[in-house]
Design brief:
The complex is a heterodimer of chains A (335) and B (337). Chain A has 335 residues and is of the alpha/beta class. Chain A folds into two domains: 48-73 and 98-240, Rossmann fold (3-Layer(aba) Sandwich), CATH 3.40.50.300; 252-323, no CATH class. In chain A, 29% of the residues lie in helices and 22% in strands. In chain A, a hairpin with a 2-residue loop joins strand 11 and strand 12 (321-323). In chain A, helix 3 packs across helix 4, helix 4 (137-150) packs across helix 6 (169-181) and helix 6 runs parallel beside helix 7. The relative contact order of chain A is 0.16. The longest helix of chain B has 39 residues, at 244-282. Chain B has 14 helices and no strands. Chain B is mainly α. The chains are: A alpha/beta (335), B mainly alpha (337). The interface between A and B is medium-sized, with 26 and 22 residues. Chain A: Residues 25-267 form the ABC transporter domain. Chain A: This is ABC transporter ATP-binding protein. Chain A: InterPro entries: AAA+_ATPase, ABC_Ni/Peptide_Import, ABC_transporter-like_ATP-bd, ABC_transporter-like_CS, Oligopep_ABC_C, P-loop_NTPase.
């Protein structure tokens, strides 16, 4: 294993059951434009029921936009010229997205900025439960206190009455995990939930997230740019480059033996396994100036004329893997 | 919280002491010799000297200042050098009149300004936003004395739907004095007709006076809401499934009005100064008309008392605003420690 995750909790082995049946979330040929910027191009992904999918990519690759599309909070001016997002078989892009709120839990990136400073933490979560969870206020309170115990927040009763600034960052993220689970979701969406925290807290939070989703049989869509985090949390991974999915497969297999030239070069940049720290020549294209065809071709050592003509299709490789490059088997000729 | 309030009150005290000294200095730099005014044109130097001695104007300036501070602190604002009556007597009747007017205008400013600002922000750059902006810029730009006269011409003279001047009809007179607020005193006395009549009289001056404040409150609320809408916690709340109305009218507004609330303190100052013109036009027997008379007659004692009273009220309002702010945003009280 080239990349050691270093995390205490290893992902569960992909079980046969998880892939059988309808995926809980199915993103089909999704394109998202924001003004002139073509952020996502024909992204197709599935989150298996009770499984975890990681989305990995550099800043600006469209991770956040993908996540916001799933959460129904695309920025103003965003258009979806193509594609669908099916949650439990329901198209949540066209249908009233509000009906699924509560069934998709959300753990945001920055626990410091994601709670409103002028309301009590408990009240902010109760407001969501009031709208999306069954039962009375007393039921909600009992449920939330139980969840706060599950996320190991000390003194849950008192915590409900505190304001956000009275918690540490790790405590706030625990609160937000509890909030994400408060309405019994089928899917939890997490947006780099540990980047704002220090390393020791990161481990605890990731372990907790992993443990709670496994215990409760939840599906997890996890966005990150950190391979170590990815290896610790996700069964499957999709590598995103400039709004296109370039590789998709079981996390271990993709990390150990990446196929797409971008994934190969990106993983070669990882300090743990770097043979040379040369990086990838060129820069990520601006979203308003995406190259035609395969968006990676201007930086790709394997590129040829055909690459600029049409986006390459996803080629199945067997064992649940696929790659968007017909030339993936070729070796690099590197200077 | 109690600690925070105590601290705000203690911080207001030196400001008030400074105000007492400042008012004294101001009365000495305004043009016009009060002794000469009192004595009249035909006064002899001996009469002038006698008047100066009677009012302590011949003493060293520091001694006068000391006496002034001591008198003010014991609640003695002196007597009008014009009428000879204690200034406090006049103030007790006139301050409630002004407060009734300014509070009414303030309620209108806040009660209309905050919803308008919210509405404008939620329709950011839409037609409603533009309309509200035009109206609020207009509200700031139009001189209140001009507007007051237009209102009088239209509502009182042309259409005859609202009274032209005063606090109540002569037929009713004033209610028995308890608080000095006609709206309250008439209710205490059980005079329903007088209550309605006072309310009727309050409409035009209060509407005139409230417009600049309404405009600035609406603008501050609008920018506060727009700023808050950009915050991560709004995105999070939307993703978590907050309702649209709850998000805008409760969740975001509470953040936004922390800025608006600081404006309310400043607004009160603007209302008091605005009241001078509005009271004069509507013949409202408040501090504003009193101050105008005092200036015209170089009655420095009266002027000094008006300035002091307004200063004290202003300080009290601002302490209340600070407390209100701490109630809205719990971090405010804790940062002070």
């Amino acid at each position: 294993m080239a990349i050691s995750s270093g995390w205490p909790i290893q992902p569960s082995a992909p079980s046969g059951a998880a892939t059988i049946g309808q995926p809980v979330l199915s993103i089909e040929n999704l394109s998202v434009h924001i003004g002139p910027a073509r952020i996502l191009q024909e992204v197709t992904l599935q989150v298996p029921r009770a499984g975890t999918l990681g989305i990995v990519g550099e800043s600006g690759c469209g991770k956040s936009t993908l996540l916001r599309a799933v959460l129904g909070i695309l920025p103003g001016g965003a258009t979806v010229p193509k594609g669908a997002i099916l949650f439990d078989g329901e198209d949540i892009l066209t249908d009233c997205a509000a009906t699924v709120r509560g069934r998709i839990g959300y753990v945001p990136q920055d626990p410091y900025l994601s709670l409103n400073p002028v309301f009590r933490a408990g009240d902010q979560i109760f407001e969501v439960m009031r709208r999306h969870a069954k039962g009375s206020r007393a039921d909600h309170k009992a449920k939330l206190i139980e969840l706060l115990r599950a996320v190991q927040l000390p003194d849950p009763e008192a915590a409900l009455r505190k304001y956000p600034h009275q918690f540490s960052g790790g405590q706030r993220q625990r609160l937000l995990i509890a909030a994400a689970l408060a309405c019994d979701p089928a899917l939890v969406v997490a947006d780099e939930p540990t980047t704002a925290l220090d390393v020791t807290t990161q481990r605890e939070i990731l372990g907790l997230l992993r443990q709670l989703t496994v215990e409760r049989g939840l599906s997890l869509l996890f966005v990150t740019h950190d391979f170590g985090v990815l290896a610790a949390v996700c069964d499957r991974v999709a590598v995103l480059y400039a709004g296109q999915v370039v590789e998709h497969g079981p996390t271990r297999a993709v990390l150990d033996d990446p196929q797409h030239p971008y994934a190969r070069m990106l993983l070669a940049c990882h300090p743990d396994r770097a043979t040379d720290l040369g990086g990838i020549p060129g820069t990520v294209p601006a979203a308003t100036a995406q190259p035609p065809g395969c968006r990676f071709h201007p930086r790709c050592p394997l590129a040829r004329a055909a690459c600029a003509e049409a986006p390459p299709p996803m080629l199945p490789l067997g064992a649940g893997r696929s790659v968007a490059c017909p030339f993936h088997a070729e070796a690099f000729a590197r200077a | 919280m109690a600690r925070y309030i105590l601290r705000r009150v203690l911080l207001a005290l030196p400001a008030l002491f400074g105000l007492i000294l400042l008012t004294f200095v101001l009365t000495r730099v305004i043009p016009g010799d009060p002794a000469a005014t009192l004595a009249g044109d035909a006064a002899t130097p001996a009469q002038l000297a006698e008047i100066r001695a009677r009012y302590g104007l011949d003493r060293p300036i520091l001694e006068q200042a000391f006496v002034h501070v001591r008198q003010v602190l014991t609640g003695d604002l002196g007597s009008s050098i014009f009428s000879g009556r204690p200034v406090m007597e006049e103030i007790v009747f006139r301050l409630p009149a002004t407060l009734e007017l300014t509070f009414a205008a303030m309620l209108l400013s806040i009660g209309l300004g905050i919803p308008l600002g919210l509405l404008a922000a939620l329709n950011h750059n839409g037609p409603v936003d533009h309309l509200i902006r035009i109206v609020s810029v207009g509200g700031l730009a139009v001189a209140s004395f001009w507007l007051a006269i237009m209102f009088q011409l239209l509502f009182a003279m042309e259409w005859d739907v609202l009274p032209l001047r005063g606090r109540s009809d002569l037929a009713y007179g004033a209610p028995p004095f308890h608080t000095g607020f006609y709206l309250i005193d008439s209710l205490i006395a059980g005079q329903g007709a007088l209550f309605l009549d006072s309310l009727w009289h309050l409409i035009l001056p209060a509407v005139t006076l409230c417009l600049p404040g309404l405009a600035s409150i609406a603008r501050f609320t609008r920018s506060g809401v727009l700023e808050a809408l950009q915050k991560d916690y709004v995105l999070y709340a939307r993703a978590a499934g907050y309702g649209r109305f709850h998000l805008a009218a409760i969740y975001v507004l509470r953040n936004a009005i922390t800025v608006t609330v600081t404006q309310i303190g400043l607004l009160f100052g603007a209302l008091i100064s605005g009241a001078v013109a509005v009271e004069a036009i509507f013949d409202w027997p408040g501090l504003g008309t009193y101050a105008v008379q005092a200036i015209l007659s170089a009655d420095y004692k009266a002027l000094l008392a008006v300035t002091l009273v307004v200063g004290v009220v202003y300080a009290v309002i601002n302490v209340l605003v600070d407390v209100l702010q701490a109630l809205i945003d719990p971090r405010v009280a804790e940062d002070i420690r």
